[in-house]
Design a protein that fits this description.
Length: about 400
């Protein structure tokens, strides 16, 4: 059996408690779904499965997650040349745009938060555009839309836009300025005049104003510069294990990492939540779960793995370091493998290590999400990690 949860609940962030985010944060452990809006999902393997990148499949998953009580669905973003990362599967060659796809989900859902990843420096996006788009989406989704701000760590992505990659720490300084402009446009009832070396706005104004002050803001980062930027403006921060995907190693390093992020936020007078991305392989017996893991590795797409590592080696990301080849093959920033009871025990440990939520990926999404809802969520409620949906909305 699993242990009881240590009470590490933090005060709510500054957004109103009745906002969709405020309601979601009433849950002891946030549940998110990492949507497979690109072919191959998170697993570079030819082992058969039905996971699909299409919008209809992802819309079905999102509605299913919402019915199970999940709090958010998250769309990742990639810019890849023909063939994706390569290999037999042409890993991630087919992909939906995260911004458009997750926005479209607002029309087919009612409660779940929807987070879009946008590379704000490619092109670049003008902050006036994104302020208007974001405010519009905020109204369409009734406060459920969020922006995951990324700056672009891969040189090949920058090259696709005809740009030279900007220095790592400078990118975050520019992102800070960008978000400051967004915030001014979202909050001001007067025209905005603004000029800097990068952005110029004259008599800029947007309506409608977001319903709860601003849309939800999200960051995914591990570097000192990234964390310093994220705690200034983000409500949710995705952290990554600094010791690889093996749970036993990761769980020892996460308490210090979570504490450091939250201490940085406190110095800024802010309260943030941290989330981590597990690949969950759950079966009735541990042996079955381990067999699935080994079967994925036995059918590893070696060409895709080579392409993935080569592409990422050209970048300057500080995240995902220490992840071995087999760990990246299976996917997930950390990997939870075992029975429903073992998965819940591991999630308790993550919560006690300071993680406020998880952003889950699965190998074969639809049946594994169904199984998670049937076998794991009831145990999460028993362990005090989740409130039943009706209770959380009361």
């Amino acid at each position: 059996m699993f242990s009881t949860m240590t009470n590490t609940t933090l005060p709510l962030p500054s957004l109103p408690g009745q906002s969709p985010l405020g309601q979601a944060l009433e849950q002891p452990l946030l549940l998110g779904l990492f949507l497979p809006i690109h072919n191959g999902g998170w697993t570079m393997s030819t082992l058969p499965r039905d996971t699909d990148w299409t919008f209809d499949y992802n819309a079905k998953l999102t509605r299913q997650a919402e019915q199970l009580g999940f709090d958010l669905a998250f769309g990742p973003a990639h810019w890849l040349s023909k063939g994706g990362f390569g290999g037999e599967t042409k890993y991630r060659e087919q992909s939906l745009d995260a911004f458009i796809a997750t926005c479209a989900l607002a029309a087919v859902t009612q409660r779940i938060l929807l987070v879009s990843t946008i590379h704000i420096l490619y092109g670049p996006w003008h902050p006036l555009h994104l302020a208007k788009f974001g405010a519009t989406l905020d109204h369409i989704a009734k406060g459920r839309w969020g922006l995951n701000i990324v700056t672009g760590f891969r040189k090949d992505e920058w090259a696709m836009f005809g740009q030279q990659q900007i220095d790592h720490d400078t990118r975050y300084q520019i992102a800070d300025e960008y978000v400051d402009i967004l915030s001014k446009l979202w909050s001001s009832n007067e025209n905005l005049d603004y000029e800097s070396n990068r952005w110029q706005l004259k008599q800029a104004f947007i309506t409608p104003k977001p319903q709860y002050g601003r849309p939800i803001l999200v960051s995914a980062t591990s570097s000192p510069a990234g964390i310093a930027s994220a705690v200034r403006h983000s409500d949710l921060i995705f952290i990554t294990s600094p010791t690889g995907a093996q749970f036993e190693k990761a769980i020892g390093a996460l308490p210090q990492l979570n504490a450091s992020v939250k201490e940085h936020a406190v110095r800024q007078g802010r309260d943030v939540r941290t989330l981590i991305n597990p690949m969950i392989i759950c079966r009735e017996t541990e042996q079955e779960a381990r067999q699935v893991y080994q079967s994925i590795l036995a059918k590893a797409d070696q060409g895709a793995i080579d392409g993935f590592f080569h592409s990422h080696a050209t970048g300057d990301s500080r995240s995902w370091r220490g992840h071995e080849r087999d760990e990246r093959t299976v996917g997930g920033n950390i990997q939870l493998v075992g029975t429903p009871e073992q998965i819940v025990e591991q999630l308790l440990q993550l919560k006690n290590a300071g993680c406020d939520g998880i952003q889950i990926c699965f190998f074969d999404y639809e049946p594994e999400l169904t199984y998670f809802g049937e076998r794991v969520i009831p145990l999460l409620e028993q362990a005090g990690l989740r409130k039943p949906i009706a209770q959380s909305l009361a």
